[in-house]
Amino acid sequence: MANLDKSVRFDWPETTPGQAQCEAGKYVGMFNCTLMSDPNLGLLIPVGAEFSGPITLEFTRSADGEFLELTNAKLNGLAADTIGFMADLNGKLNCTTRALTATIMNGQYGLGSPIIFPGGELVGTLMGQLDIKTGELTGTWSMTDKVSEGLFACVGPWQATRSP
Predict the structure, then answer these.
(1) Which domain holds residue 154?
(2) Which residues have CB under 8 Å from 65's CB, separation 6+?
(3) How many domains is the chain built from?
C-alpha cells in the first residue's frame, strides 16, 4: 500500500468545454445608430438622424452546450420622435469564442412608435462579443431597407448585460 498525502486536494470545477464561458438567460441594454445616406435621395428621415432604443436578448443553451441560441430577441427604436422601427433577431453566441452573430428578422419601419403607418421592411446584422468577466455583450449592428438594398443604412453600437 502506497503512502498517500491525505492533505492533497484536487480543486477545479468539472465543466463541459465552453459552458463556463457564457450563461443562458436574459440580457438587456441599449443601442443607437446614425442614419447614413446620399442627402440627394430625398428621404423622409433626415440624414444624420439618431435612432436609439432598448435591446432585449434571451438565450437558451443548445443541446450540446457549445452555443447559446437566441429564443426571444427584439430591437425597438425611434428617431426624431417620428420614425419608429422594430425587429426580431435570430442568431447564436458561440461559448468557446464568445462571439455573437445575429440577423434582423421581421424588421419594419414607419411613422410612430409603435408603428402606425408602415414604411417598409428592414434587414441587417448584429455582431458582438461577450466579456465573461463583466457578463456584458457589446458590438455593432447595421440595418437597411430591404427593397433599396443599401440606399440608406443605420449603423451603430449596442451593449447588453445579463439580467438576474
Answers:
(1) 25-163
(2) 16, 18, 19, 95
(3) 1
Is the residue at 19 inside a domain?
A: no
Residue 20 has pLDDT above 50, yes or no: no
**Residues with Cβ within 8 Å of residue 107, at least 6 apart in sequence:** 85, 86, 87, 88, 121, 122, 123, 124, 143, 146
Structural domain contains residue 119 = yes
Q: Is residue 110 part of a domain?
A: yes
**Does residue 14 fall inside a structural domain?**
no
What per-residue confidence (pLDDT) applies to 36?
75
0.90 cut: is pTM over it? no
What is the CATH classification number for the domain harbouring 119?
A: 2.40.160
Q: Distances from the Cα of 52 to the Cαs of 91, 95, 115, in angstroms?
A: 21, 28, 15
Q: Where are the beta strands (DSSP E) in 6-163?
A: 25-37, 50-61, 67-79, 83-94, 99-111, 117-131, 136-145, 152-163
In the numeric block, which cell numbers belong to residue 68? 447559446
Quote the pLDDT of residue 12: 44
